Amino acid sequence: MIKRVWGLYWRTYLLFLFAALPLSFAEMYYVVSESWIVLKPSVFYMFVGALLLVPFHHRKGLLFSLWGNRLDLSDIVWCSYRKIMGTSYILYAAILYVVSETLPLTYWVYTKTYGSLFVNFVLPILAGVVVINKKAG
Known about the structure:
mainly alpha; globular
């Protein structure tokens, strides 16, 4: 089970990285303002969430395309995991946007720093354990 959870985790991280690189490279060539710096994480997490929610490759999602057949997981596990992670990224993007618009900038910085640690490191592992245990049993 640890191998499968780790497999889901690094695939999620790799998709996150592949989505971040074009946005980072595009940002180098354009003038950025303070409002774009605050809005960029929300746009990025919304984009990654949308990528995860797209029913690609027989509803297994885009993560399955990253050597997903090696994990030997059922279609239900892939579909459930991509829905949980896609929804959580979109929810986190909405939270970041609301915090940036309603609270002072320091609260946004704390939310972005500690929230992204949870969403990118803890949540994929927890979601993987829950989905694999629930669908296997």
